[in-house]
Amino acid sequence: MASFKDIMDMISKRKAPEPPKGFWPEFDRELGERLDAIDSRKSNRSYGFAGWLDGISFAFFQPKPVLAAAMFILALNIVLFSFASRGPTLVSVALLSRDDLAEELVLTDQLSSGENIVDF
Fold this sequence. Notes:
Elements: H1 4-13, H2 23-43, H3 49-61, H4 65-84, H5 98-107
């Protein structure tokens, strides 16, 4: 079995075949025809705002199932978070003064009005 070095030596010694005499002009002609065909197809497309609008309308009127599921989940999350934000809010006790804390505890029935507040 030949080693990697032997294979690389055989490849480096091998001569590349010469193309026929008319190969490159024929290649250039065929390549030009193909590029012209691509350019003619692109000129039929609409670009700019009209193309963007067509893409958006296509996405909305023919949605993919994955996109529709993602939109449904997103809408459901927005609705749930909007309902959750209407509930009672938490008060940060660390930012309240002693008097405000006492008033807050009395309002929430956590402390009767006659009890003493212990300093922390």
